[in-house]
Write a structure and sequence with these properties.
By secondary structure, the chain is an alpha+beta fold. It has four helices and 14 strands.
Length: 227
Amino acid sequence: MRFGTPDPGATETGEGMTWRTPGTTIEGVFTIGDDPFVIVPLTVVSDTADLTAHFIPCGTRYLSRAFPDGSRLPRVMTVDDFRSYHSILSLKSWKRHALVTTTPTSASAIRAWWTGDWMFGGWYVNLQEPLRRTATGFVTEDHFLDILVAPGLTWTWKDEDELDLAVERGRLTLAKARAIRIEGERVIDLVERAAFPFDGSLVDWRPDIAWSLPVLGSECNAILEET
């Protein structure tokens, strides 16, 4: 494994690993094309046939693409444009606690989030490719459009302009953009019905006190040294 120690309860499938031991550190990678854009160490909470959950504590150090001077890349890029930029993976710090839940085929991940002192802030719905399992964790790709859900279950779309721009620039087909919005509407239905995970059952969730902060592995540190 790239991060931490091998999970003695992990099992290998044709699609990658299933993580059985809570507290195991794995990696979550967001890509553009086949290239890593964000790499985040994750703590396994649960990984079953019905639900995958992982935890990102406030203060977790992760890698995100940026220009060498630290400025952000354009919000929407084609794969070719992204590869033409001289970008580097730079070290950043996660600003909130997040419990992230998804199902094996869902094109979305739902982050219940809290401030650093555990004041519940609501949910952030990240529309993305269904998780693809690897030997070290999960890989996905962001779908631009997101949903913000307040503790009282009022919701609003986020970054609709990015979805439109992705179609305009050829990053997404119109059919793909429609499918992304349909997935968002599916999650909104869960919100409006106060169905899991919007039913309040996770508001008082807390991590095991024995879990340490997940850390980037040696391969990521080597990347930083090279840049």
